[in-house]
Write a structure and sequence with these properties.
By secondary structure, this protein is α+β, with helices and mostly antiparallel strands. The protein has 16 helices and 39 strands. Among the domains are: about 90-95 and about 185-265, Outer membrane lipoprotein wza fold like (Roll), CATH 3.10.560.10; about 115-180, wza like domain (wza like fold, 2-Layer Sandwich), CATH 3.30.1950; about 265-340, Outer membrane lipoprotein wza fold like (Roll); about 565-754, Outer membrane lipoprotein wza domain like (Outer membrane lipoprotein wza fold like, Roll). Strands 7-6-10-8-9 form a 5-stranded mixed β-sheet. It has a 5-stranded mixed β-sheet with strand order 12-11-15-13-14, covered by helices on one side. A 5-stranded mixed β-sheet has the order 17-16-22-19-20, with no helix packed on it.
Length: about 750
C-alpha cells in the first residue's frame, strides 16, 4: 500500500491512539506505547510495525521470575515439527548437467537421440558421429541401418565391431558415446509441481523428484512407483537410502517413465530419548524397533522398557505400552515416546526440553559454565532464553530464573545445585508461541515482538543482545534494510539500531523492514498453477515469472496470453481523448467537406468513444520460452492473464451477423465472412484485418487474396467501416481510425476471454 498522500494525517491519528495507553498496562502492544517514546522513529517505521502486528498478538506481563510456582510438565514440550526426509529433495540440483564428459558404463542402455562416435583406424581412417533415429537405428555408411536402441553400450560395441570386421579388413574400431540425450519423464502424484520433465540420462528416481519441486507434506516417501513404458512397475522406498544408505532400488529413469508419488497419513512423531526426534512415515510391516532405528536409536538416557505409543482408534486416542520387537500392524500411530531411565540419585540435576542433551547430571554446586561443557547442544538451540528451576520449601515449590546462553552475566550467579532443573528450547519450539504460553504462562513478561518482512513473531528474551543476533538466529533469508532497523524500549526508540546492544528488560519490539531494493508488484491470473499477486525484482522477465508461479496448467492457451500495462492504457486513454476532441471540434466548426450524413457518422463515433474502456493490452507472443518472454522485462502493476484453450473464431464489424464460430481448419477468411452473412454496404474490405489471440494484427490486404490469410483458433476477424467520406479530412479520418482500432481491440479481447 502507498501511504505518501495521507502520511501526515495517518501519523497524527496513530499518535493520538497511543496517547490513551501506558506501557505498564496489562498488555504490551504498539498501541500501548507513549508517543514520546516513538519520537525517534519515522512515520514509515511506525506504520510498517502497525501493519505487521497481528490482531491477536497479546503480550502479558507477569510477576518477577523468582515468583514461587508449581512444577512445569516438561513432557509436554513440543520438539518435533519437521518430517524426516522431506528436505532431501531441496539439496539436489535440478539443472541438466552436460553429458559429453560423463563416464558411461557398459550397461548403459542406448536411447533415442543419443549420439555414438565410431573411430576407424588401420586400413581405413574415418570418424563417424551417428545419432540414434526415432526408429531406434543408426545409419552406418556402407553397412546400412543398425538397431541399437534399448541395447547396452557393450552389446552395441560388439554388434558394430562385428559388422565392420565383415566389411573391412585390417580395421581397428573405437566405439564410444559422444553425446547423451536428455530423458523425457513424467512425475505425478503428491509432488509440488507435477508435469513432464527433461532430465539427465543418469537421473535416479530420487533425483527426478527434485525436478518436480520436492513432495507435498502428505507424500509417502516409502511407496514411490516407477512405471516403465512397457507397464512394468518398480517400487522404491526412500528410507532405504536415507536410513540405511542402500541405493540399489534408486534406479535410473528412462525416457517415457512415469514416477508416481503416493500420499499417506501414516506419520508418527518419535519423541523422547532418541538421538534424532522427528516425525517419520511408517508401514504396517515396520516393527517399533524399525521406527526407533529411523530415529538413529536410543540415547544414553533411554529405557528400553519404557516405550509407549499414542494410538488413534474410532475417534479416540489412547496410550499403550509396547515392546520394541512388536510390529505396527494395522494400528494408527500418532506418537512413539521413549522414556528415560530413572536416576539412582534423586538429588541429581535434571536437564530437559529441546535443543540439548536431556537427562540427569551429577552436580555439586558447580557453575553453569562447567555444566554446559557436559551438555551437547544442537545447532538449533535457542540461545536467548532458558529456565533454571530450583526446589525451595523442602520441595513443596520451586523458584524460576531465566537466563541466556548468549549472555553469561545472566547466569554467573547461578549454581548447578542438586534437585534442580534446567529447561532448554530449540528454534522450532520457541517460535511456537501457543506452546510456550501453555507451558510457561507466568513468564510472558519476557516476550518481545519481532516485526519481519513477511510476518511478525513474539519470542522470549533475557539479558543483553542486539537486533543482529536476533535476525541471525531466526535464519531469515529475505533481505532487510539494515539502516532502518527500529527498536522500541520502555525508555526510548531508535531508528538505526541493527548493531546496538539492548537490555531485554527494556525491550518491547524490534522492526526489521524489508530492503529498499526495487521491488515491483505483478499480478498473474488464469491457467497457471499458482495465480496471484507477486512482489518481484524490477529485472524480472516473463519466463522467470512463469517459473515462479509453477508453470502452466494443461488447458492453458499460451498463444492467447494477455499482458496489460498501465502506461499503455494511459496512452490509449490519451489517444481517445485527443481523437474525440478532434471530432468534436470538427462538428462545432462545421468543417467543410463533411456532409450532414458525415456529421451523423462522426457523432456516432464520438458516442462509441464514450463507451470504450481502454485495456492497456500489449500485443506479442508471450508464450513460454519465446523470444519476447525471455527478454520482456516486467513493470510495476503489470497484469498477465493466461486464458483457457480457445476453439473459437470471432467475426465483428461491418458484416450482417457478427458472431463467433467453432474453429474449422478447413475454413479460410472468406468462409468465415460468408458464415457471418457477408459484408454490409458500409464495409471497408481493403482495411479488413485479423487480430490474433496474442493481440497482434494481420491485414487481410487485397480482397482477391484474402482467402490465403490463415485463420487460427482465438482469432478475431475485423471488418471496419468505410471512411471514404472523410478522406478529404486527414485529421478526422485519423481520429476515427484510432477510435475504431481501440474499440475493435477491446471487443476482440472480450470475445477471446468469453
Amino acid at each position: 500500500m502507498h501511504f505518501d498522500y495521507h502520511l501526515d494525517m495517518i501519523f497524527r491519528l496513530f499518535l493520538l491512539a497511543f496517547a490513551s495507553f501506558f506501557l505498564t498496562s496489562q498488555e504490551v502492544d504498539l498501541a500501548d506505547i507513549d508517543p514520546e517514546l516513538l519520537k525517534n522513529l519515522t512515520p514509515e517505521q511506525i506504520i510498517y510495525m502497525q501493519q505487521m502486528q497481528r490482531e491477536d498478538d497479546v503480550i502479558e506481563t507477569g510477576d518477577d521470575l523468582t515468583k514461587e510456582e508449581s512444577l512445569v510438565d516438561a513432557d509436554t514440550l513440543e520438539q518435533i515439527e519437521e518430517k524426516f526426509g522431506y528436505n532431501f529433495f531441496s539439496k539436489i540440483p535440478t539443472t541438466i548437467s552436460p553429458t559429453q564428459d560423463l563416464p558411461v558404463p557398459n550397461d548403459y542402455k542406448i536411447s533415442l537421440q543419443d549420439e555414438i562416435s565410431v573411430l576407424l583406424s588401420g586400413s581405413k581412417d574415418a570418424r563417424y558421429s551417428l545419432k540414434v533415429n526415432l526408429d531406434g537405428t543408426i545409419l552406418f555408411p556402407e553397412i546400412g541401418f543398425i538397431t541399437v536402441v534399448d541395447q547396452s553400450l557393450q552389446d552395441v560395441r560388439n554388434k558394430i565391431s562385428a559388422l565392420i570386421n565383415q566389411s573391412y579388413v585390417g580395421v581397428n574400431t573405437d566405439i564410444s558415446i559422444k553425446d547423451l540425450s536428455a530423458k523425457k519423464i513424467t512425475i505425478v502424484g503428491a509432488v509440488n509441481i507435477p508435469g513432464t520433465y527433461l532430465v539427465n540420462p543418469f537421473t535416479t528416481i530420487s533425483n527426478a523428484i527434485a525436478y518436480a519441486g520436492g513432495v507435498e507434506d502428505y507424500a509417502s516417501l516409502r511407496e514411490i512407483h516407477l512405471i516403465k513404458a512397457n507397464g512394468e512397475k518398480h517400487t522404491f522406498d526412500l528410507y532405504d537410502l536415507l536410513v540405511r544408505g542402500d541405493r540399489s532400488q534408486d534406479i535410473s529413469v528412462s525416457a517415457g517413465n512415469t514416477i508416481v508419488v503416493n500420499g499417506t497419513s501414516n506419520f508418527v512423531k518419535i519423541d523422547g530419548s532418541v538421538i534424532r526426534p522427528m516425525t517419520y512415515e511408517y508401514t504396517s510391516d515396520d516393527s517399533y524397533q524399525d521406527l526407533i532405528d529411523f530415529a538413529l536409536g536410543l540415547d544414553a538416557y533411554a529405557s528400553n522398557n519404557n516405550i509407549t505409543s499414542m494410538v488413534a482408534d474410532n475417534g479416540r486416542n489412547y496410550s499403550i505400552k509396547i515392546e520394541s520387537a512388536e510390529k505396527v500392524g494395522n494400528k494408527k500411530l500418532l506418537e512413539l515416546f521413549i522414556g528415560e531411565q530413572i536416576s539412582n540419585n534423586d538429588k541429581d540435576l535434571f536437564v530437559t526440553g529441546s535443543g540439548s542433551t536431556t537427562g540427569y547430571f551429577s552436580v555439586n554446586g558447580e557453575s553453569l559454565d562447567e555444566l554446559f561443557k557436559k551438555i551437547k547442544f544442537s545447532s538449533d538451540i535457542y540461545p536467548f532464553y532458558a529456565i533454571y528451576e530450583q526446589e525451595v520449601n523442602g520441595g513443596l515449590s520451586r523458584t524460576k530464573k531465566a537466563f541466556s546462553l548468549a549472555d553469561p552475566d545472566t547466569y554467573k550467579e547461578l549454581k548447578a545445585n542438586n534437585n534442580s532443573r534446567i529447561f532448554f528450547y530449540d528454534r522450532e519450539y520457541i517460535l511456537n508461541t501457543e506452546a510456550y504460553e501453555e507451558d510457561n504462562p507466568a513468564l510472558l513478561s519476557d516476550y518481545a515482538q519481532i516485526f519481519l518482512p513477511d510476518n511478525n513473531v513474539s519470542i522470549p528474551v533475557i539479558g543483553k543482545l542486539s537486533p543482529r543476533q536476533i535476525h541471525s538466529f531466526l535464519g531469515k533469508s529475505e533481505s532487510i534494510d539494515l539502516s532502518n532497523v527500529a527498536v522500541i524500549t520502555t525508555k526510548n526508540s531508535s531508528s538505526d539500531s541493527y548493531d546496538l546492544i539492548f537490555d531485554s528488560a527494556d525491550l518491547v519490539a524490534i522492526s526489521f523492514p524489508p530492503s529498499k531494493q526495487n521491488l515491483i508488484e505483478i499480478e498473474i491470473t488464469g491457467e497457471v498453477r499458482n495465480p496471484g499477486i507477486y512482489l518481484v525484482s524490477s529485472s524480472t522477465n516473463l519466463d522467470e515469472l512463469y517459473t515462479l508461479v509453477g508453470g502452466f496448467l494443461n488447458n492453458s492457451f499460451q498463444d492467447g496470453i494477455e499482458l496489460f500495462r498501465q502506461s499503455v492504457k494511459e496512452k490509449q486513454i490519451k489517444a481517445l481523448r485527443e481523437s474525440k476532441s478532434i471530432l468534436s471540434d470538427s462538428m462545432i466548426q462545421k468543417t467543410a467537406g463533411v456532409s450532414d450524413r458525415g456529421m451523423v457518422d462522426i457523432q456516432a463515433i464520438i458516442e462509441l468513444a464514450d463507451l470504450i474502456e481502454p485495456t492497456g493490452r500489449v500485443a506479442g507472443d508471450f508464450s513460454e520460452n519465446s523470444d519476447i518472454a525471455s527478454n520482456f522485462i516486467l513493470k510495476d502493476g503489470d497484469i498477465i492473464n493466461v486464458p483457457a484453450i480457445s476453439v473459437e473464431v470471432t467475426v465483428q464489424g461491418e458484416v450482417l451477423n457478427s458472431s463467433s464460430f467453432i474453429f474449422d481448419s478447413d475454413m479460410n477468411y472468406n468462409d468465415y465472412i460468408k458464415a457471418s452473412g457477408g459484408y454490409t454496404s458500409f464495409a471497408d474490405k481493403r482495411a479488413a484485418f485479423v487480430i490474433r489471440a496474442n493481440g497482434e494484427s494481420t491485414p487481410v490486404g487485397n480482397n482477391m487474396f484474402s482467402g490465403q490469410v490463415k485463420i487460427y483458433p482465438g482469432d478475431t476477424i475485423v471488418i471496419p467501416r468505410n471512411l471514404d467520406q472523410l478522406e478529404a479530412l486527414p485529421l478526422i479520418s485519423m481520429a476515427t481510425k484510432i477510435i475504431s482500432d481501440i474499440a475493435f481491440s477491446a471487443a476482440s479481447l472480450n470475445a477471446i476471454q468469453n
